[in-house]
Design goal:
homodimer; about 450 residues; alpha/beta; Molybdenum Cofactor Biosythetic Enzyme, Chain A; Molybdopterin biosynthesis moea protein, domain 2; Molybdopterin biosynthesis moeA protein, domain 3; six-stranded mixed sheet; five-stranded mixed sheet; 8 helices; magnesium (chains A, B); molybdenum cofactor biosynthesis (chains A, B); metal-binding (chains A, B)
Amino acid sequence: MPLFGRKRVKDQPVEEPEPFRLPEPPAPGPGGMRSVVDHRDYLLSCIEPLPPFGQQILDAVGLTLCEDVVSAISLPRFDNSSMDGYAVRAQDIHLASVASPTSLPVVGEVPAGAPAPHSLSPGTAMKIMTGAMLPEGADTVVPYEATDRGEQDVRIVEALDPGSNVRRVGEDINEGEVVLRAGDRLASRSIGLLAGIGIDKVMVRPRPRVVVISTGDELTEPGFVLQGDQKIYDSNSYMLAAAAKAAGAQVFRVGLVPDDPERLKQVINDQLVRADLILTTGGVSQGDYDIVKQVLPELGATDFTTVAMQPGKPQGFGLIGDDQTPIIMMPGNPVSAFVSFEAFVRPVLRKLAGVDSYLRRPVIATAARGISSIPDKLQFARGVVAEGDNGELIADLASGHGSHLLGGLAGANALLLLGEDTEFVAAGDQVEAWLLLEDG
Amino acid sequence: MPLFGRKRVKDQPVEEPEPFRLPEPPAPGPGGMRSVVDHRDYLLSCIEPLPPFGQQILDAVGLTLCEDVVSAISLPRFDNSSMDGYAVRAQDIHLASVASPTSLPVVGEVPAGAPAPHSLSPGTAMKIMTGAMLPEGADTVVPYEATDRGEQDVRIVEALDPGSNVRRVGEDINEGEVVLRAGDRLASRSIGLLAGIGIDKVMVRPRPRVVVISTGDELTEPGFVLQGDQKIYDSNSYMLAAAAKAAGAQVFRVGLVPDDPERLKQVINDQLVRADLILTTGGVSQGDYDIVKQVLPELGATDFTTVAMQPGKPQGFGLIGDDQTPIIMMPGNPVSAFVSFEAFVRPVLRKLAGVDSYLRRPVIATAARGISSIPDKLQFARGVVAEGDNGELIADLASGHGSHLLGGLAGANALLLLGEDTEFVAAGDQVEAWLLLEDG
């Protein structure tokens, strides 16, 4: 009975599935902290652009194309008139002038979208509308303005070169031509082009689905009455949801989660099914109630670190659940959360969406007054950048440095980037800034 | 029977309602054409911003506020800790140093969102989390880093000024303060601010509802097979719908309307109910099939004119239906339609949405090569603006001037504005450009 003689499965050494690990994080810098650039590059190295998705062209505005688009037709598809007027043979009107008009019999009419009734015989004219197909035999269109608009016969007062006011087949696009390429971001003009060559669906990177979660027993939903002196309104999840939405994401904001490990685990597990990226704020510092830091390692591979930046020092990242869904865990102070969004989340969203440049393009502005900075950290100061009298950009601070100042944040239109080596920017010195443009 | 003796109503002079008229249009310029600026100003003078609308804050991102927002609370609401650490009285640790730490008994703990168990007695410390309310009697927070993190007693190695690491009530926002003003555009940071002061709904200008209609017997929907040699795909309604969407509008694209006056009237009448603005392309020129121009005057007050621009010369505008809904009727060539959108529709959309600046901000670039222009018309050339070696902007033409060239339009990233007085821009000369940014 060889069946029973076989070695039983449970006697075999059971191979434990290797737990999923994050790639080796970058080594910390001199101060024991990771640099902003290292941390961002690390996050970007851990994620891939979302898989291509077929989308109706009107829903693809602003998305990134994942295929080269080849035109199956030429544009124009046929020789056609660029004016309302009369189709003729140029040689039949080569003597026409205001002093001595040429008169031709009008033998028919070609509206746009309909065929010419017949080909054009020499010495005749055919009325033709803009966009209408040039009748066979004609090579030129005389616009109304150069005629008497005659119905039976037309008097033409201008000689024209052959081909005048005619759009040639393929003049814009040739059949078989690549008109858009994988990686192109679809502006409205590209949508017009796609429609013009008859394409109604394209493969694009979808909008990233972002789930935003706030944690904290102290938080209350806006619109409700604060129950108790210690409660505050939740601003982070609204601000981050709004920022992600303005950056092109599809956003799901999840109501407040109390500082309860089991509840937090359950909420995150429930949300994984619809998330390409999860954002949390709060609970990543050294406090005893920092449950995000405490719970997340149970859900997947995580990396909690300190980044050499101000604000936004404590940062968490993970790839969690069965699909290794990325999660970015930011500090809970509103300004820290906003700066973390700009420094890390926006680039990650851009990579997910297949956008080529992950970073905002910095501008160089002149400091309106001295700005002190913290050495060994990249400082993100809330700034106001305005145009000076000569068109140059002038940067000033929007408010103090406190990481809880929502008012100052709302009043800023830029983040000023003061590098690790900078202790002081004097008035008149140049300073790098990110203009917060996409965002209103 | 005085009842019968009364003068019958029909004998009274019936007052015909005065037909609605457009304001007097501006006088044409020297060439018999209206200037671009005059036409735009005329359109803007005929419309008003949309009425305010209550919106949930997350749906208000990017919209314009219609009310001043006053904070009903202070932020912070109470003195609270900006660090995880220990609440103390500064005077109790004024001699603390690394060489000679001060030891204090830990008499309790304040998590965020909960009240302190009791007030702080002199000579004691209370553990406190970031954001937690400072217990009565305390004036300073010693961060973990300046302690041994003791549980029974804590050794403190640094003297601190009173108020250190404490966020004072109202430091960010005072109760009764105006935090945002009517006319402000709501960025994500403003959404965070609104949430932070407990506001969940605001009055904003809604997204304009734009109905886009294409007319023309020759048009076919993308995705379908062209039936007949003379048919072409409809690109305009897709391009304009995409452009309006990218500009923040809520867009309804209406399938192709054939060149049938009754059908067109019916479609437009049916759409009025959901339109803040109607856009059509085609049928505004001098052709015999220009049904838009033929039909629209029956639906309301209209103004068909020629504008001193290239492309985009024939332009129509109207206020139609019972509500005097604005309609902008553009020429049917794709590039003409796109330029008309930028020159007229975008400013109108911005005014409807309550945005302050109606125009794109032009940039000044250096022409990479000579560009000839048509005198007496404002020419909008499709351009490519790129940054040169020294950060200066360099402008080149994207393609030829043909108004049907979709390929060239999709390849452009700017419109170069060559004024009425310009016949030629030499290489190295400065040229004004609109960067087509919002649009991908």
